[in-house]
Structure of Zinc metalloprotease:
Amino acid sequence: MTIIAAIILFGIIVFIHELGHFLFAKKAGVRIHEFAIGMGPKIYTTQKGETKYSIRLLPLGGYVSMEGEDGESNDPRAFGKKTLLQRASIIFAGPFFNIILTVLLFIPVFAYLGSPSDSNVLGKVLENSPAIEAGLEVNDKIIEINGAKISNWQDIVDNLAKETSQPINIKIERDNTTKDFSITPEKNEEGKYVIGITPVYEKSILKSIPKAFIMTWDMIKQMLTFVVQLFTGTIPGGFENSVSGPVGVIGIVSDAAKMGIINLIYIAAVISLNLGILNLLPIPALDGGRLLILGIEAIRGKKLDPNKEAMIHTAGFMVLMGFMLFVTYKDILKLF
């Protein structure tokens, strides 16, 4: 059942991506022949107006088939007949919808997990940490660090960020009395000096919204860093352990489904963002490749020959399919 859930979830993410292309194409008046989820043989199809809606056997992607998207067309409603801005918006809409979906999925995740409050009260003191060994307790209120007044959690973060392995003096308020502690920070795995405390977490839909945007932006930066490492061959842990194809993704989603709905939603957000960002890479056949060609058109002041452009994207598609087969082969080997 978890594999089925994974396939359905992946289909939903692809559907949102293609829906972005579809809605903006409709708004621009482009003739759409087919809206498909999946690739390969059809397992379901229905016709509404001029557009065919279908679900295909292989859950490897989807597409919106537009008149004149790949090749010359004299139809006034062809994709190629639209303005540069209209065509760019249609192409960009798919990845953009995936980014928006990521934010929307992160909101319930952070609403459930909670967001750090801005109070200077301890929500948790970690086991085997300098703080617990010194005697700090949950609900202690930190009021001074090395003589500096503390009024919120950011003050705590800012002051502790200055510290090294030298003992620090922390004054807390507990049961209407004040106590002084001397605590020696220890270096964590990231090379930062910490004492082992966390804030109180508040469950709030309103507070989860900005947190969702921040997390999405941070993950976008991480993904762009990964892309640079991919092309420079400097991926930590190596290429094979860092890249997954459809089989690997379905396995990851299946594992997340076993751990609960929140984990599943979180993984869905990550996959959606991956789909959106990777599609913006300037590679032929991807949305980013098509946007690159539109950028060249804007600079040149005239269109590239539609048939030549179609050949470029076809070649890019073949390379991407070869890459996907290679990664899928590696995923299958990992299963055994």
Notes: The mean pLDDT is 85. Residues 2-114+211-335 form one domain.
